[in-house]
Amino acid sequence: MKTNSKDTICVHGGKQTDEFKSINTPIYTSTSFGYLDTEKRLYPRYFNTPNQQVLIEKLSMLEGAESGLVFSSGMAAISTVIFGLFSKGDHIIFQKGLYGGTINLILRDIERFGIEYTMLENNLSESFLNAILPHTKAIFIETPANPLLSIVDLVAISEICRKKHLVSIIDNTFASPVNQNPIKFGIDVVLHSATKYLGGHSDITAGVILSNKQRIEKIEKTALNLGGSLDSLTCYLLERSIKTLTLRVEKQNANAQRIAEFLFGHPRVNKVFYPGLPSHEGHEIARKQMSGYGGMISFETKSQDTDAFMRKLSLIKPALSLGGVESTICTPSTTSHRHLTKEQNAKDGISENLLRLSVGIEDVDDLISDLNNALTMTN
Predict the structure, then answer these.
(1) What is the pLDDT of residue 338?
(2) Residue 247, Cβ neighbours under 10 Å: how many?
(3) What is the CA radius of gyration of the chain?
């Protein structure tokens, strides 16, 4: 299939047919496959079963990658990339303000396995360049980042990595392949928590790594040992969900833009973090590298009692995770970043009254009305 249309790729990319000419990819539930008279050795932990391969083909087409691997969670993907590409004595540069699970992995485990790191104080291009040491092997970024939607310049990072012979890695979860394709800007490895926008219905957990074939083959050797592969049923559910990815994300983009503008002008809101707002410090860079600004918004109310505010919402549900068709809200300090100390969160600008809103596909006026009622009722 030759097409550059993401709408068409989402529906038709990677689909495997069978003798019955079924429209959907069959679910191969077997964990045991015959091997006589064939060179193939199919096994779920080997990342090569039919449902895994069909899914990777679709995702590779969406991100412009040569190959990839699907995992049982986003963190399984992130940890496998790090331990699959880097060894004792290597050094990695991490941007400021990453997802809390990634930061927890860095603080608890990376140095324990002999991998050194630098966590930047800001995300300016010169800061990445100045942090490079003789044994630096990679730069790891996340843009837009969780939860403050900070933006990193993809072109600048890819140029630095190319000149210094480093591997560039991005967590592209918040953007999704609909809004941003980092490989097009020269980034080497793209990660997704497929639990979020790729799944999109709050009913599966999965992760993805996408890159060139040579790098994926290297990562796969470690992946085989760590065992974080994805079962066939979840692969099928994820492939099914991706068929509506562009429809969902474009609606979430539009809803989030309207809501961010509403919150920005509300007298009971202190700060709004959304790259689609001209006031956002990364707006100009985001405008150049994103085709849409995403469905995630973070904001601070003037009330310190965030729980009281969330309890007054009727349509938007306080819940963990994000990227679903339904709108959800949470406080990062007690959810995604709860394993970090107050001092660590404060250093990254994550206050206790910061709220992270995952905008769904509901009617936007209903969502704005729900937020307005809660803001007005909160003392």
Answers:
(1) 60
(2) 14
(3) 21
Q: How many CB atoms lie within 10 A of CB 313?
A: 20
Q: Is the pLDDT of residue 31 over 70?
A: yes
- Output the six-digit token pair for 7: 């709408």
Active site residue 196: yes
**pLDDT over 90 (residue 52):** yes
**pLDDT grade, residue 18 (50/70/90)?**
confident
Catalytic annotation present for 231? no
Rounded Cα distance between 13 and 29, Å, is 21
- List the catalytic residue out of 171, 188, 348, 370: 171
45 is catalytic: yes
Specify the pLDDT at position 13.
95
Quickly list DSSP for 297-362: EEEEESSS-HHHHHHT-SSSEE-S---SSS-EEE-GGGTTTTTS-HHHHHHTT--TTEEEEE--SS
Residue, of 112 and 17, whose pLDDT is higher? 112
Residue tagged active-site, from 99, 117, 197, 236:
99
pLDDT at site 21: 87
- pLDDT interval class at 16 (50, 70, 90): confident
State the Cα–Cα distance between residues 97 and 174, nearest whole angstrom: 13
Domains contained in the chain, CATH given? 6-242 (3.40.640.10), 246-377 (3.90.1150.10)
Give the pLDDT confidence score for residue 333 in this predicted structure: 77
**Catalytically annotated residue among 6, 58, 196, 356:** 196
Q: Phi and psi for 214 in degrees, rounded to 5?
A: -65, -45
C-alpha closest to that of 336 among 327, 346, 345: 345
Distances (CA, A) of 283 to 16, 143, 177: 40, 12, 19
pTM of model > 0.90: yes
- The DSSP secondary-structure symbol of 26 reads P
| Catalytic-labelled residue, pool 15, 45, 287, 312 | 45
